[in-house]
Write a structure and sequence with these properties.
Layout (H helix, E strand, L loop, with lengths): L10 H12 L7 H12 L4 H11 L3 H10 L10 E6 L2 H5 L2 H12 L5 E2 L5 E6 L11 E3 L2 E3 L4 H12 L5
Parallel strand pairs: 1-3
Antiparallel strand pairs: 1-4, 2-3, 4-5
Helix pairs in contact: 1-2, 2-3, 3-4, 6-7
């Protein structure tokens, strides 16, 4: 059974569940769902793989087998994850500029881990908060109406171990 409670407030899990639903809970969408999960979390942990297994009603061994077959997927976490929404509303409000500045400022490319292994940067499409575009997710917390400066400062905060 999944260790994720049904009342989870982590927007990242909401995005995974939304992706699964958008694919009609089809088993043949597993690879796409794993890509979205990995890009959102920065890695695929056991609890997340079990959650996906339950949502798609397929054996955990099959989900784990696909996740370990492809070298793109990491099963261990990076201490900090940042996801920049590139959905239409966010893109129109400047999220691509935010993503580019994060890449430059922290010397990390999208969908990669920084050289010092402390930051995983990814892009996601539509987190369901278009009214507060552009949005970024820093360690599971949504930052709405984000500016380039705010995004960089929030990331600096979490890399220093500070809360925001």
């Amino acid at each position: 059974m999944s260790t994720y409670p049904k009342t989870v407030t982590d927007k990242r899990l909401f995005l995974i569940d939304k992706t699964i639903a958008a694919h009609g809970y089809r088993r043949d969408a597993l690879l796409e769902i794993l890509h979205v999960a990995h890009n959102t979390y920065g890695y695929l942990d056991k609890a997340l793989l079990l959650h996906i297994s339950e949502m798609l009603n397929i054996p955990p061994s099959q989900v784990y087998g696909v996740a370990t077959f492809y070298k793109h997927f990491r099963l261990k976490p990076c201490p900090h994850t940042v996801a920049v929404c590139l959905g239409t509303a966010c893109r129109l409000m400047g999220s691509q500029k935010i993503l580019s500045e994060i890449e430059r400022e922290f010397n990390v490319k999208c969908n990669e881990v920084s050289e010092n292994m402390t930051l995983y940067l990814s892009s996601v499409y539509h987190i369901g908060q278009c009214a507060t575009a552009p949005n970024i997710i820093v360690d599971g917390k949504v930052v709405g109406n984000a500016t380039v400066e705010e995004a960089v400062n929030r990331i600096r905060q979490v890399l220093k171990g500070e809360e925001f």
